[in-house]
Amino acid sequence: MTTKTISFPVYRFPVFEDKLAKLNRRLSKISGSHSVEVISQERIDSTYIDRTGREFKNPCFQVTVCVPALLNHQGHKFLGVVNFEDGVRTVYATDEGVNFDFSTVADTDCHHCNHKRKRNVIYIFEEVATGKISHIGSTCAEEFLGIDVTAALSFSQSLFVSLEDMDEDNFFLGGGSSGFSINELFSAVSLLWQSDSVYWSSRKADIEGGVSTPHQVFSLFGTDGGRIREELKNNLHKAIKEVGVEKISSLLVEKFSNLDTSNSFNLNITEAIFKDGKVRQFFPDKVVGLVTWAIFKALNDEDETKKEDKPASQWIGNVGDKISLEGQVAKIRSISSHFGHSLLVIIETAMGVAKTFTTARWSDNIQEGDKLNLKGLVKSHEEYRGEKSTVLTRVRIN
Ligand SMILES: [Zn+2]
Fold this sequence. Notes:
It is a single chain. The strands form six sheets. Strands 14-15-16-18-17 form a five-stranded mixed beta barrel. It has helices at residues 13-30, 138-145, 149-166, 168-173, 182-194, 202-208, 213-220, 230-243, 245-256, 264-273, 288-309; strands at 2-9, 37-43, 46-49, 55-58, 60-67, 76-83, 90-93, 121-127, 133-137, 179-181, 274-275, 278-279, 282-284, 322-337, 340-349, 352-358, 371-384, 387-397. It folds into four domains: 2-70 and 155-173, Alpha-Beta Plaits; 76-146, no CATH class; 179-309, no CATH class; 322-397, CATH 2.40.50.140. Helices cover 34% and strands 31% of the residues. The termini are far apart. A hairpin with a 2-residue loop joins strand 14 and strand 15. It is built from eleven helices and 18 strands. The chain is an alpha+beta fold. Zinc ion (ZN) binds at residues 110, 112-113, 115, 137, 140.
C-alpha cells in the first residue's frame, strides 16, 4: 500500500471530502474491495509573509491518504508496465518493481495466452508466494487479474493528480505563483481609493492616456521581487486599517455573491472574487483587474448611499471672510511634498466641512474626534464628488 500526503487550507476541507467520495465511487466500479482512505489528519498552520511585510496566517490540514495498490491482485504484485509504442521502449515501474530488469521484456511476450505477436503494452506481475514473474499483454491483463487494468492504472494516475490539485492554494501561498494575498490586494485598492482616485480600466487608460487602476495596484508593489518602500508599507497598513479587509469582504459578499451567473460578465466577476463560496484569500494576477473594479464599485455605491442619507453639503462664508467655527476633527492626514511635511485637518461643523493644511504647533496635539473652537480665513471653496468643503488658512485654536 502506498500513501500520499497533501496540505490544503482548512476552508477547503469540504472540497477534499467531496473529491474523496467521487474517487471512491469511481473505484468501486473498478474493484469493490478497495477504497481510498484517510489514515492521518493533522492541523498544520502555515504562515506567509506578504509583500507589505505582513504575516498572513493560513490554517491548513495535512492529510495522508492510503492509495490502494489496485493491481496487486489475486496474489500478484504489480511491478510495472513496458510500453513499445512507436518502436520506443518506455518503462513505468512501481516503487516495488525497481529490482526487476525491464530490459529483459520482449514486445512479443504474453505468459497468459503465449501467442507470439507484437504488442504495444506489456504488464509485469510477480506472484507473491513463488516470486514467479509474468509478462502479460494488455488485452489479456483483465482476464489474468480479474479487474480492468487500464481503468485501474488510469484511476491511480488521476487519483494523484486529483489529490495534488488540492495543494493548489498552498502552492500559491508558498509563492509558487504570482498574485496577491487578500491583505495585499485590499490594502492597495484602499490606498488608491483613499487617494481620491477613480477607477480606470486599462482600455480607458489606453484610449485617453494614463495608468489603469489595476496597473497602479501592480506598480504599488514594484517589480523587484516584492520589496516596497517603507513609507508605502506604512501607507498601505494605514489604508487597510481605515477601510478594512473585513469591511471590503462583506461589501463584496453583499454586492456580488448573488449575481445571476448565466451572464458571462457576472460569472467572471463571481469567479474572480469567490472561491468555494467564500471571498478568496489569494488573488491570482489574472483576476486583479476585475476584483479591483468590484471593490471600487462597492465602495463607490456605499459612498452614494451615505450621501443620499446626508443633507446636501454647503460652503461656509465667502472667500476672504474671517470666520469662527466650532466642530469636530473628522480626519487628519499627513502630507509630504517638495515643500516639506504638513497635516491636512478636516473638521466637520454644523455649517459644513472645513479643512486646513497646517504645520502649526496646535496641530501636534490634536486627534481625530477632538472638539475644536477655531478662527480662520476662508481661502477657497472646493467641491469633490459632490461634497462641498471650505478651505481655511491662518487657523488659530481657542
Ligand atoms: Zn495474452
